[in-house]
Amino acid sequence: MSVFSYVTTNHEAAKHHVKVGGCACGIKLSTGNPSTSSGNALYDYTFAEPVEVLLAHILSLIELHPPHFYMMDFLNIFTTGQLVAITLIFIWTGFVRSGIGFGGAALGLPLLLLVDDQPLVFLPIIGTHLLFFTTITLVSRSHNINWPIVGKVMAVIVLPKIAGLIGLFSFPNYWLVMAVFSITLFYGVTWLINYTIKSQSKTVDTVLLMLGGYVSGTSLIGAPLIAAVVARHVTRIQLRETLFVLWIILVILKMSAFVAYDVDLQWKFSLVLLPFVAIGHVIGLKAHDYLVTSDSTLFHRFLGLSLIIVSLAGLVKYLSENV
Q: Domain limits of the chain?
């Protein structure tokens, strides 16, 4: 069995060695650490197998926290009460995503913004969880995917999605937060009065998809608009899995933009929250079969009322603090 030894020197030398028993060779990686005189800190690895190299690199990132991979210290930023609230909200997002097929971000992000009004803190975490759990769900249910609809929908929403991503990194944080609460309030009203957003023509389909794509780009809460169109073209059994494929594609685009703009992906906090989201996900899977085969009007009205309360509270709180 290979034995690792991990030695860290000061930033001036900035060299970290991982030695593995057996025949070895070396590799150097640059992190762009401005603390060194040359502007780059070097990671010098000696390894015997590619897997051990990967493990060595992961260890260095976790222990040394280079600037590019730095994760904000949630334990210092949030109080215990806020951390408990965040945990409960992510359990809720897991339930909604697997139970309904959409709305994890739409029903979770407004609550998270009441805890902290920084969308770019929570959006990468929501995206990571979505990719993980939707992929797991699709493994055993891929036969329910309507691939032709996936292709047609993506052809319409890809450009608005890109435009929304540009807006996400261009608009002031104030605008983004207000947009999230306002759009969520609209969803809440439609659900409370049992009004279903639906389309009866290709023109309306296109408008809803373009709006959904743009909103998805800015905040990941465009799902109800997109789902309204997809629901018209697939069976009820196919709806969730078809939507999941769309969410995966859209979230990959968003996460790629985060990487390009050097946004912290909060991957450590995502891993910490993963078991809690899993609790909601499992409960949602069990609830999904019931919701598909029964009248869910009362459930949607309850969600609508909850969204209205949360959105109004968020708008009042945010306006009072910023006006």
A: 5-69, 74-322
